[in-house]
Amino acid sequence: MGNVRALMRYQKLRGENMKKVNRVEKLVLLAVLVIGLVVIGGCGKGPEEKPGVTQMPTKSQKEAKKASNAIENVCGYFPKELVESAIGKPIVKTEGRLPGMGDSCYYYTSYSEKYRQTQYGYKPGGSFIVVVYDTKDFAKDRAYNEKSGTKYESDPSIGMDNFVMRNKINEIWQTALVLGGDRYIRIKSIDKAVPGEDLVKIARKFAERIRGDSSLDLSSKKSEMDKGQVIGESQQAVVTNFFNNLSALKIQNALAMMDANENTKQAWGINFNTIESLKVNKIEEVYKEEWTSTRQSFKVKLEVKVKPAGEQIGWQNGINYRWITLEKNAKGQWLVHEIANNP
Hints:
The protein is α+β, with helices and mostly antiparallel strands. The protein folds into 2 domains: 61-211, no CATH class; 230-340, Roll (Nuclear Transport Factor 2, Chain: A). The chain is built from 9 helices and 13 strands. The strands form 3 sheets. It has a 7-stranded antiparallel beta sheet with strand order 1-2-5-9-8-7-6, sandwiched between helices. A 4-stranded antiparallel beta sheet has the order 10-11-12-13, covered by helices on one side. Strands 3-4 form a two-stranded antiparallel ribbon. Helix 4 packs across helix 6. The radius of gyration is 37 Å and the shape is globular. 22% of the residues are buried.
């Protein structure tokens, strides 16, 4: 009888254990199925994308604009090694011009501290190639030069739009690369730094550099701000007041009328402080067809006496000509934006 009871208890316990095992197996199977569905459902689907989030560009618009304007730093954009490779001779010195006098670079093929003797002593200098980033109306220069006997032609070997200028005896005296939108690179030899044919070689090298720069904007279109503007009255009085301040040696007053940062004003302050006397002989409006509601240009004839240092930074004793560009700022003030030694 005892054996029968023991057998019955064993069978009962075995049945309960089997139920537990079955429940565990079912739970395991269910878990496997759930995991399988999750894995299968997730195949081919990337991370969840959040609405409104866009990928940042590799280069900001500000950086791109800066890159497109890099050519205005002539000495930096066209290093002396590039010029040397074109002409096959060393450039012993490079010199960028003062801000506001036009973006240009002098590439000296020779240089001496006693290059030229003046009544005040020796003046440093040498033979050089001048390269200018120019935004003036090239057609104006062409009309003037052609009246003087210059012939304009194009050299297809340069590899981009260009002008080659020859004098009356058929010598090349200047080349120019056309960037579009009234922008040019002018290349000229001073004091027989290189023969005219080398100016064409330099233009070829520069054209290669420009064509290889994908960031450079060569658009020929003018900005929308320049279109359909109403030109106001002449601001010649601003130019008059500016030079009246210089004539009275009120340098700080003149600097206050300039559209420039503090570093540029400091450089111009050094320049203006070489003036001993200045007289305005004539002011005339120029390039009127290019005037806008915020930009005007003038030509000024000056009679100047300067200290010896002044002759080294663009002035000469006697008659000087300056081309002045005025621009109106956001506050509506007309200020001197650019002073150039040539048109």
